[in-house]
Amino acid sequence: MTAYWISLYRETTDEAKLAAYAKLAGPALEAAGGAFLARGLPEQTYEAGEATRSVLLEFPSVEAAVAAHDSPAYQEALAALDGGAVRDLRIVPGV
Predict the structure, then answer these.
(1) Spatial separation of the C-alpha atoms in residues 43 and 26, rounded to whole Å
(2) What is the Cα 88 distance to its own chain's centre?
(3) For residues 56, 21, 64 and 42, what is the CA-based torsion angle, rounded to 10 degrees?
(4) Which is it for the CA torsion 78, 21, 62, 5, positive or negative?
(5) Half-sphere exposure of 49 (CA within 13 A, CB side)
């Protein structure tokens, strides 16, 4: 079953660290089977929506998304981020 990796950036505290993370994270997640479906700032928000950066990836399964997160390549990206952003990251199974 398809799964979705959803990252909501609550706060960016260091743009340089975020850029270093992005340079490593994108290739790591794609190599692990992830496909970027959307990323960037929202065009419109509703209800309690926040105008913060959002990232949506599709994976073949929850297991593949978890494996991508736990992979050495993505862990290297997280080390580069090193507190440069406060995020809400979740993996949600498709319907």
Answers:
(1) 22
(2) 9
(3) 0
(4) positive
(5) 10
> What is the helix (H) or strand (E) element at residue 9, kind and residue range?
strand 3-12
pLDDT at 24 (0 to 100): 98
Instruction: For residue range 8-37, list pLDDT tens digits in order.
Output: 999 999 999 999 999 999 999 999 999 999
The amino acid sitting at 37 is: L
d(CA 79, CA 84): 10
**In this predicted structure, what is the pLDDT of residue 56?**
98
Judged against a pLDDT cut of 90, whether residue 78 lies above it is answered with yes
How much is the pLDDT for 49?
A: 87
- Beta carbons of 71 and 85 less than 8 angstroms apart: no
Contact of 83 with 17, CB cutoff 8 Å: yes
Tell me whether residue 37 is exposed, middle or buried, using C-beta atoms within 10 angstroms of its C-beta: 0 to 12, 13 to 18, 19 or more.
Answer: exposed
